[in-house]
Design brief:
With about 120 residues, the protein is of the alpha+beta class. Helix content is about 40%, strand content about 15%. The protein has a single domain, classed as Winged helix-like DNA-binding domain superfamily/Winged helix DNA-binding domain (Arc Repressor Mutant, subunit A, Orthogonal Bundle), CATH 1.10.10.10. The protein has a two-stranded antiparallel ribbon. The chain is elongated and about 60 Å long. The two termini are about 35 Å apart.
């Protein structure tokens, strides 16, 4: 019978916490969502926003497809609606990233802790 290896010397309760939750990882699994989010993050420092109509033209992808992916990113809290504006009988929606880098601060903090020397 094989003996289990000891977990002595590990910090915490032996459970590993993910850097990013599973739903966020799944949401970012699609290349289009990664590009949408990257563009939103890139524009955030200057106060810029993204909107589905503009993204549709930028990526050359149907507006309904872009709108769906933007809505999913917003549902997960990666984008937030900052305003709407009437445009030709419809409402244009404007979104911004909810963080300033592609890795949120709590993820950077977990990376710092994970890479710190033992006993630090």
């Amino acid at each position: 019978m094989a003996r289990k290896k000891s977990r002595k010397g590990r910090k915490g309760n032996g459970k590993l916490s993910p850097l990013i939750d599973v739903s966020t990882m799944k949401a970012l699994g699609g290349e289009l969502r990664q590009h949408i989010l990257a563009l939103a993050v890139e524009r955030k420092p200057s106060g810029g926003t993204v909107n589905p109509k503009e993204l549709s033209a930028h990526f050359g992808i149907d507006l309904s497809v872009i709108s769906y992916h933007v809505a999913q990113l917003a549902k997960l809290g990666l984008l937030k609606l900052t305003g709407t504006e009437p445009r030709r009988g419809a409402q244009a929606h404007f979104y911004e990233a909810t963080f300033d880098t592609l890795l949120p601060e709590h993820v950077w903090e977990q990376l710092r802790k994970a890479s710190a020397p033992a006993g630090a």
